[in-house]
Amino acid sequence: MPRFVYFVLLLCAVYARAAQTPGNGSPTVSTPNRLFREGHFAEAATLYRSMLERDRLFAAAHAGLVQALLKLDDVASAEEASTNGLITLPQSAPVHAARGDVLFREGRMPEAEAEYRKALQLDETCARAQFGIGRMEAIASHRDHARSAFERAHRLDPEDGDVLYRWAVLLPWPRNIAELEKHLTQFHTGPERERREREYVAFLKALGGRSIWTPPAGLRSAEIKLVNVATHGALRGAGIRVSLNGGPRHTLLLDTGVSWITISRKLAEKSGARKLSDFGFEGTGDAGPGAGYYAWVDKISIGGLEFHDCVIQVMMKESAVPEEGTVGLQMFTTYQISLDLKAHRLHLSSLPPEAIETKNTHEKPLIAENLESAQPRQFLSFGHLMLVNTRVNGKQDGLFVFDTGANATSISARLARQVARRVRSSNQRITGSSGDVRDVFVAEDVSLDFGVKPGPGEDLPSYDMPALSSNLETEISGLIGFQSLARKKITINYRDGLLKVEP
């Protein structure tokens, strides 16, 4: 056989193997794929590794190994596996998509997007790449495009559990319930993720397809007065006076880190709130989720605005803080929101015309990479959470939760060790909805650039939030709390994912 012909045949064999993806029925990956679906991720990873020892050109094993390691939240090993996969198979779409998933988990969004697009350039039928683009569209607040991408991914690979879940969540009621129950039956993702999914399905069933948080008819603009919330004389945050079911007004802490309204069980019972389904509170702290439930309230007055058919969250555990609960901003997402914390005002106005051209083309990256761009700045939407790309000490970027409900700004211990002048132990007590934080440090001389000119470096509490990072499937580098926002004017456009912070 001529050498040239032999080389061509060998190359074709290599690319044929590299094109295979987990879940395509290939008998060589059926066993680890089955273990993966059953939630035995460590065992699946072991089998994928043994396959690569026999055949390092097997793309399905490379991609499967990365996915199994990510399910185990072993990000360091997934980083190594995805890097090795690209070195071995630089022209494999599944391997590029798997690398994109690792970068997404690390919070390196522009790089993740580039990997997903590279995978689609190599093979536009790569389901994991379509899924990755769907996730990028979702966090960029392009909801219709995200739905379309998840639909394409599901058509390409209906046996991928991640794809099935994200596709099912966006389906109309009651079809979403049927497909989510199918996901719970056919895929196992670990006790905590399955608990959240069961709670979500139970909530959807209790809601029964009803619309919620109906605003006042014809509302175009409004202004709500904010009040100071203090603890032992120290300013803790901004509060809003709220009435439930026509009862007395209560002061709730304005908290951009929550969705709607959260109150205690005692207040919920006094207000006539009716339980819908159970809910586990998760947040700062190492004690795991706290007990709670979703409840229905017929009407809620926020400032002078009355909303009907409202869903709230109720905490079983009583809180020692002075406010009687928290109020988020999700009921205001159809308006442009201006928070003037210095003047104690929350103003609602009509959203600006939608920039349609930016949502109908993918010539520009979905996730902005340049932190020096003019205001307003893009934030990344993870459910009700706003994640802001923040430059720390002018050296490194991280995703910080924009959280007016956190009285202190903080930085993860992981990032602090890379950028702070010094990290030292601390006996400071940090408590959240998931209890106390065990390991608290102080990061010295830290300066954050999140859209306003950073001031001099300051000492910040430092602790990691592994549960939140794992839940969101991206690395959280800290919280931008009230101490950094107290005298600022903040404009939020949830529809387009835009945030502006002014001195």
Key phrases:
503 residues; alpha+beta; disordered N terminus
List the helices and strands and how they pair.
Elements: H1 3-18, H2 30-37, H3 41-54, H4 59-71, H5 75-88, H6 93-105, H7 109-122, H8 127-139, H9 143-156, H10 161-169, H11 175-186, H12 191-207, E1 222-225, E2 227-231, E3 234-244, E4 249-254, E5 261-264, H13 265-271, E6 274-281, E7 290-302, E8 305-315, E9 325-327, E10 336-340, E11 345-349, H14 356-359, E12 377-378, E13 380-382, E14 385-392, E15 396-402, E16 410-411, H15 413-419, E17 422-425, E18 431-432, E19 435-436, E20 441-446, E21 448-449, E22 458-462, H16 466-472, E23 478-480, E24 489-493, E25 498-502
Parallel strand pairs: 4-9, 5-8, 15-23
Antiparallel strand pairs: 1-11, 2-3, 3-4, 3-7, 5-9, 6-7, 7-8, 10-11, 10-24, 12-25, 13-14, 14-15, 14-21, 16-23, 17-20, 18-19, 20-22, 24-25
Helix pairs in contact: 2-3, 3-4, 4-5, 4-6, 5-6, 6-7, 6-8, 7-8, 8-9, 9-10, 10-11, 11-12
Number of strands: 25
Q: Tally the helices: what do you get?
A: 16
Mind telling me the C-alpha Rg?
Answer: 24 Å
Please list the strands of the largest sheet in the order they lie side by side.
Answer: 1-11-10-24-25-12
Residues in helix, %: 25-40%
Averaged pLDDT: 89
Shape, please?
Answer: globular
User: Sheet bearing the most strands, described?
Assistant: 6 strands, antiparallel
Going by helix content, strand content and strand pairing, the class is alpha+beta
Question: What ranges have pLDDT less than 50 throughout 5 or more consecutive residues?
Answer: 1-27, 357-361
**Terminal CA distance:** 75 Å
**Roughly what fraction of the amino acids lie in strands?**
25-35%
